[in-house]
Amino acid sequence: MSENAFLTVTDLRAGYGGARVLHGVSLAVGQGEICAILGPNGAGKTTLLRALSGMVRVRGDVRLDGADLSGRSPDTIARQGVAHVPEGRGTFMPLTVEENLRLGAFVRRDRRSLRGLRDLRGRRGGSAVDADLERVHTYFPVLKTRLKQVAGSLSGGEQQMLAIGRALMLRPRLLLLDEPSLGLAPMVTQELFRIVRAVNEEERTTVVVVEQNAHLALSIAQQAHVLESGRIVLSGSAEQIRADEQVAQSYLGYRV
């Protein structure tokens, strides 16, 4: 693995209770790169992202820009600039769109004091958080028209936009996306991936994306890894992975 990698994962092992899911996963992602994680259901893709964000106990080494994240709590890892958009979006349904977005900035050191929902509903006045709300709106203009609407009343696509927008409020250095296209119409999925690529290019945000739509994931990624049964069985550039006959037959639907 490159010594200059921004994210390095070495011999990562993780699971739930006594059940081991990841068996010595190692990978490296350069700063500003998009890395796609492919594989069948049950391969450990979601567990990998949960391990990177501190949601499951791990053995092994995880480093972000040299900082050791191994075994750290989710809030500590978030303060290091890691934002995780989980499968199923994790939106706070009873809260408004604006409240959800402001919660994304909760662990930031430059935020204004946010003590409960009264502050989330009412703080104004040109703060860095307010500026980032406007920044998120440039990527997701529809959210600006829904600010006072409760998140549970949004469409599936809008909820996914909200989940990604909330993650961007952290000003992440590393963005983890778990199945962002799940349950969405193809046109909405295409737009989401266009925005993810724009965020990556404009803000140099490093992205690790787990995605069932391998075509789309490989179209925006620089590198990719294929997981099977908790182990990486294939790694390379997105072009190399796309050209691999095994991947083509298993995930892309054609023969090389």
TrEMBL record:
NAD is among the record's keywords: no
Domain ABC transporter: residue ranges: 7-254
Keyword set, alphabetical order: Amino-acid transport, ATP-binding, Nucleotide-binding, Transport
Family designation: Belongs to the ABC transporter superfamily.
Pfam (any one): ABC_tran
Identification of the protein by name: Amino acid/amide ABC transporter ATP-binding protein 2, HAAT family
GO biological process: L-amino acid transport
SMART domains per UniProt: AAA
Native source organism of the sequence: Streptosporangium subroseum
GO molecular function, one term: branched-chain amino acid transmembrane transporter activity
